[in-house]
Amino acid sequence: MRYGPAVRRRKLGAELRRQRDLAGLTSGEVALRLGWHQSKVSRIETGRSGAKPSDVARLLEVYEVADPELRALLEALCRGGASDPEGSRRGWWYAYRDLLPPAYRDFISLEAEASDAYTLETTVVPGLLQTPEYARAVTLAALPDLPRPQVDSLVEVRIARQSVLHGERPLRLHAVLDEAALRREVGGPEVMTAQLSHLANLCALPQVQLQVLPFSVGMPIGMTGPFIIFSFPHISDLDVVVLDHLTSSLYLERKEDLRAYSAAFEVLRTRALTPEESLSFINKIGGGA
């Protein structure tokens, strides 16, 4: 388990090392071509130090990597984490750098670059599917002593994150939502009614697959707590499991962890209601049935 920025550096370094091997170059030869010390190449590849987007771009030129999506993904992996030395390439979340801890900023940047997200939520509606009022109620419940301006900013961040579900290449969200999250009243009856209506509307989006896990199925294997799996285009080695905690996030990147959580998610998805049944279920709860 590692914190997000370390995961990003390691994954970026591993893929850059793989591209160097495919190009048939040694780290010394790469350093010579770029006018770097060999130790700089080694530190980047082992994840001991970060890399600027311009450094990654130069490395990919040397390795003759032409795939635009791969290039964009690898350059994105070195942006948006704990720090970003190239202001012109910063993500929108950099404006909230004084409020958001590095691990959360890194989570947001991973979310922004992923092609798919597979999430189990057992307590609350997933952040990408929350209304502003619901998000505010959740934030106040988790951080009751936080000054109101900071609460407002955190809600802004939560809503801004939802842009990944829209646009030219939206994130494909596969969510299994425990019935408890639908029945737990957050923010009062009006807020909850609006939230359930919002969920029903989002079910119409082709990039959102929402399934409800009803109480009647008991506790399936794998339902030990909320988690999310980020999957990236082209490079399965970049996939990562994120376990959310109150004050931080933990990242699992070993292949055996990914296999275990992916298998657990498939079990949960099989036991859950179908998307069509889930929509009816949400509408029934929202209508007071």
UniProtKB/TrEMBL annotation:
Q: Which InterPro entries match?
A: Cro/C1-type_HTH, DUF5753, Lambda_DNA-bd_dom_sf
Q: Which residues form a coiled coil?
A: none
Domain spans labelled HTH cro/C1-type: 16-70
Q: Per its UniProt record, what SMART domains does this chain match? A: HTH_XRE (SM00530)
Query: Which is a Pfam family this sequence falls into?
Result: HTH_31
Q: Report what the protein is called.
A: Helix-turn-helix transcriptional regulator
Record the organism.
Streptomyces mordarskii
Taxonomic lineage of the native organism: Bacteria, Bacillati, Actinomycetota, Actinomycetes, Kitasatosporales
